[in-house]
Write a structure and sequence with these properties.
By secondary structure, the chain is of the alpha+beta class. It is built from three helices and ten strands, in the order E-E-E-E-E-E-E-E-E-E-H-H-H. The longest helix is centred in the last third of the chain and has 27 residues.
């Protein structure tokens, strides 16, 4: 009677996955219908023995795979402040991570793409320059006050066909920002600001109609 079949690799063995040319550690072993399957690096995938080779026996080319965990404390659409930009408020519209590797050193840098609420001006800043807007009982009121203070140029009417204020598209962006804030915080002041922007849009449309009639 032949001895029961034993797995070729043991937990803790360092192996090469020949399907991908990557190196990993055996972290689990399962036997299905007499075939041994191996878990590598606590992944959810299982690999057959014939796909694995002990690192000490491998003579081919390897891909060096590195798992990097990146923390993203701010989400898309979140309202934030930025260091050195005073009380201006920005909305997060994008984020990317840049990974740097050199001999003997390496680091990651998270870059946020932001749009200023008042005029849609876009900037890119590193994570460490972003200041969160704390969420408390007084935050929603303070936030609206800050937005109003930061928007003095929002209300002038266009003159001589040269717009000294925001365009209709920019006002619609501002409206959408207030709408998002209202949905997040449920504060009626955000709804009031939405109505204010709508009134401003109506004023611009009426002004444009008058100018058209004059022409």
């Amino acid at each position: 009677m032949s001895a029961p079949k034993r797995p070729k690799f043991s937990i803790g063995d360092v192996v090469v996955n020949t399907l991908y040319g990557t190196v990993g550690t055996v972290t689990g072993i399962q036997q299905v219908d007499g075939t041994f399957l191996y878990e590598i690096n606590h992944s959810h995938s299982l690999f057959a023995e014939q796909a694995l080779v002990a690192l000490s026996e491998f003579a081919g080319d390897l891909w060096i795979v590195e798992e990097v965990e990146i923390e993203l404390p701010f989400f898309l659409g979140e309202i934030v402040r930025v260091r050195d930009y005073g009380g201006h408020l920005f909305k997060v519209v994008g984020v990317r991570t840049e990974i740097y590797r050199y001999y003997g050193e390496g680091w990651e840098e998270t870059i946020y793409e932001l749009k200023r609420l008042t005029d849609g001006w876009e900037i890119e800043v590193p994570l460490e320059d972003i200041i969160p807007v704390a969420l408390g009982e007084e935050t929603s009121v303070t936030l609206v006050q800050d937005i109003v203070i930061a928007m003095p140029a929002l209300w002038p009417l266009p003159a001589d066909n040269r717009s000294s204020g925001p365009s209709v598209d920019e006002l619609l962006d501002v409206y959408n920002d207030y709408k998002a804030l209202y949905e997040w915080f449920g504060d009626e002041q955000y709804k009031q600001m939405m109505e204010t922007v709508v009134q401003r849009l109506r004023t611009i449309v009426n002004h444009q109609n008058i100018e058209t009639d004059k022409g």
